[in-house]
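Researcher: Sequence recovery benchmark, item below. Answer with residues only.
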């Protein structure tokens, strides 16, 4: 056949360590129909500071693949909520082959058409809290690329018509496809009149949605006469692919005929008629493939490139064919994103008769509904059982209803189908099922009632069970509970929801409490973070005593908002918010930076000439800090910038005073030894703890120590009270070495500026 190659790529994205599904990077692809091979090229590279990260450590990258919906992953091996079905997916781990780059390849032969999703993440880290901008962070970027090869002009088989084919010596196989409409209970594929070799050395393979693989349903025509392959309960509204393959080493040309018969389950004794009055009777697409775009209702073409077609008599259905029951639709009511209720006409109470099943269909829209959780709830009305031991079984299957009449073994699975089983009885009246990230399309729920006897389950007589049925789509499971937050996420144009857990809780619905914080631990951490701000009371008292009223007001502001911000910032249930969280966070950050600013400006001890400059600096600092926090609250320069600027002003003031006096300022060693050096060391220790030691696990006590150290350093660094300006009276005189020494002890202690108190004394020998 003729192959066409298509290329798809996605923008590189930065990967994050796994904490929950909200921290993964999700990529959405679409694979066209008739694709025979799909190759994903997985490119990963490191970056650090805008250049290649050759010095970055190698961290493994895990990639998940799933068709139809995002993967439901559990790399931390946590527990899922009760009644949750976990669909499978394929995982691949990438290892590094070069210092800063690696490439992985993932091949899928005959992939299912439609939506495919890739999820990628880094391993879980230790949860270190780093200051933004402190150092160049290693970034791991991931870029998937998709290359598909698809066949064009695949021959289409028409139900009830014979297709003739000749396979030459250089051809090994012939591929066909046939569309299976709704209400089809059986597909029968048959190879007829095999000529050109002894024993018909052909393999017959059939697969739904994509070309067959080596492990698809197959039949060896040499061992079976006639060569018939039957598929019961096929998928509705899908293409089925038929592959006729020659045995290896068979020479010459082989000719044969292929015919497909579809059994209409609404009329089990009849196959699909070769001529249909309209397209609605088969629900088939108007584009019919390579046979010239045949529209239903038109007469089939008399001939095809492979040979002639003519109708054949309708064979009778096999004993396995069963009658299908009417499918009751549901009404879709969209309330919000991933908040959809499916209402049953004349429901929600459903009557399940004893002689036939009740079948319902739930239609999930492509792409739009696969990012949520499909919820199903059955509740039995015990009063409707009339004292009988009745059990109502429900089978939820994708794309085809399963209504088996086998009462001995109640199951929702066949050789080609896998569904979900629910059951309710007089003892267990409630049954729930949750399917995260369900595949889109039609989901069929089949309900039937059986009576339990000593020989197993048997059909009930004259008992119609009544069941309350509720089906709905939600963003997350139980809204992630009280220890989680349901987040709506987006990747390009695809929306999905995921839980982000807190307080040590984990799992898909934040229900795994293996590492959860106890109530006592939550209360202790909240009290430590809040009460550690009481350490600002001594600096406030010192500031008031030293007449630094503006500084005292800033410290009170910081203490108040830091206390209530941490009371509101707790991850558990010990939370108390007096304002909006964003307001509290902004005020806490602003108060912390303003405390540093006003303390350093006060230490500068500006001269009376430039006293107005102090007020200007205070006001300018408040405005600039507010602007900087609004731009980026977690940036490193929000703390370093104002601090360095204030320290520069203080250094200039101290240097000018030292040059003018020709003596180091402050002049006394007591001021350096007992105030400045201890305060600077305490502040440096606080900064080191905040920048390099703090993690998510030790946050509550390390950050509490940070509060204590910062408040304590302010008490040491805040300068003492300044004396009012004016002349001083005569000082006590002391004679020594023939001179009268004029001593100002206040100045020597560094408590009063020498320009404030002018001393005029006449010293005589």
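Model:
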């Amino acid at each position: 056949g003729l192959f066409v190659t298509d290329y798809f790529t996605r923008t590189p994205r930065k990967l994050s360590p796994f904490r929950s599904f909200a921290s993964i990077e999700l990529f959405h692809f679409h694979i066209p129909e008739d694709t025979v091979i799909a190759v994903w090229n997985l490119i990963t590279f490191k970056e650090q500071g805008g250049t290649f990260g050759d010095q970055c450590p190698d961290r493994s990258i895990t990639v998940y693949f799933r068709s139809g919906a995002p993967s439901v992953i559990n790399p931390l091996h946590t527990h899922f909520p009760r009644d949750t079905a976990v669909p499978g997916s394929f995982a691949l781990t990438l290892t590094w082959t070069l210092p800063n780059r690696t490439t992985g390849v993932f091949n899928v032969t005959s992939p299912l058409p439609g939506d495919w999703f890739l999820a990628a993440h880094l391993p879980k880290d230790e949860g270190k809290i780093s200051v933004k901008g402190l150092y160049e962070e290693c970034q791991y970027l991931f870029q998937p690329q998709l290359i598909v090869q698809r066949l064009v002009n695949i021959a289409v088989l028409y139900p009830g018509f014979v297709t003739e084919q000749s396979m030459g010596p250089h051809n090994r196989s012939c591929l066909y496809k046939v569309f299976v409409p709704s209400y089809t209970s059986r597909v029968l594929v048959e190879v007829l009149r095999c000529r050109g070799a002894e024993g018909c050395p052909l393999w017959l393979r059939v697969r739904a949605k994509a070309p067959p693989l080596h492990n698809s349903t197959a039949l060896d025509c040499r061992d079976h006469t006639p060569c018939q392959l039957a598929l019961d309960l096929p998928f509705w509204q899908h293409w089925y692919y038929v592959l006729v393959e020659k045995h290896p080493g068979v020479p010459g040309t082989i000719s044969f005929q292929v015919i497909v018969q579809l059994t209409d389950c609404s009329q089990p004794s009849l196959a699909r008629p070769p001529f249909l009055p309209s397209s609605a009777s088969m629900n088939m697409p108007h584009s019919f493939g390579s046979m010239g775009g045949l529209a239903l209702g038109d007469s089939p073409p008399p001939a095809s490139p492979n040979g002639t077609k003519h109708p054949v008599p309708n064979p009778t259905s096999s004993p396995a064919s069963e009658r299908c029951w009417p499918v009751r639709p549901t009404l879709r009511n969209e309330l919000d994103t991933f908040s959809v209720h499916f209402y049953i006409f004349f429901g929600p109470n459903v009557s399940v008769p004893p002689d036939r099943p009740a079948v319902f269909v739930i239609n999930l829209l492509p792409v739009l509904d696969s990012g949520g959780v499909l919820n199903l709830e059955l509740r039995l009305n015990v009063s409707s059982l009339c004292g009988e031991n009745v059990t109502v079984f429900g089978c939820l299957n994708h794309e085809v209803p399963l209504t088996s009449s086998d009462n001995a073994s109640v199951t929702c699975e066949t050789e080609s189908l896998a569904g979900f089983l629910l059951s309710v009885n007089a003892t267990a009246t409630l049954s729930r099922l949750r399917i995260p990230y369900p595949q889109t399309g039609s989901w069929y729920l089949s309900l039937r009632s059986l009576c339990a006897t000593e020989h197993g389950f048997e059909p009930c007589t004259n008992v119609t069970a009544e069941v309350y049925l509720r089906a709905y789509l939600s963003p997350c499971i139980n809204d992630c509970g009280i220890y989680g937050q349901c987040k709506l996420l987006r990747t390009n144009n695809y929306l999905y929801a995921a839980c982000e857990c807190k307080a040590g809780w984990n799992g898909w619905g934040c229900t795994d409490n293996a590492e959860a914080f106890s109530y006592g631990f939550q209360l202790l951490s909240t009290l430590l973070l809040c009460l550690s701000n009481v350490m600002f009371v001594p600096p406030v008292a010192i500031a008031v005593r030293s007449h630094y009223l503006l500084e005292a007001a800033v410290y009170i502001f910081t203490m108040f908002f830091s206390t209530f911000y941490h009371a509101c910032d707790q991850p558990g249930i010990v939370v108390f918010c007096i304002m909006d969280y964003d307001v509290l966070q902004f005020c806490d950050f602003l108060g912390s930076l303003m405390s540093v600013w006003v303390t350093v400006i006060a230490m500068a001890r500006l001269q009376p000439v430039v006293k107005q400059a102090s007020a200007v600096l205070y006001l300018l600092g408040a405005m600039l800090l507010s602007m900087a926090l609004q731009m980026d609250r977690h940036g490193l320069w929000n703390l370093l910038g104002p601090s360095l600027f204030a320290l520069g002003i203080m250094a200039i003031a101290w240097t000018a005073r030292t040059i003018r006096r020709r003596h180091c300022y402050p002049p006394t060693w007591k001021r350096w030894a007992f105030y400045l050096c201890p305060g600077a060391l305490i502040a440096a220790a606080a900064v080191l703890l905040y920048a390099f030691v703090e993690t998510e696990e030790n946050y509550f006590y390390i950050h509490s120590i940070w509060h204590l150290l910062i408040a304590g350093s302010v008490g040491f660094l805040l300068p003492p009270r300044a004396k009012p300006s004016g002349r001083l009276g005569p000082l006590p005189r002391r004679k020594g070495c023939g001179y009268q020494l004029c001593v100002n002890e206040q100045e020597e202690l560094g408590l009063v500026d020498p320009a404030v108190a002018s001393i005029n004394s006449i010293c005589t020998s």
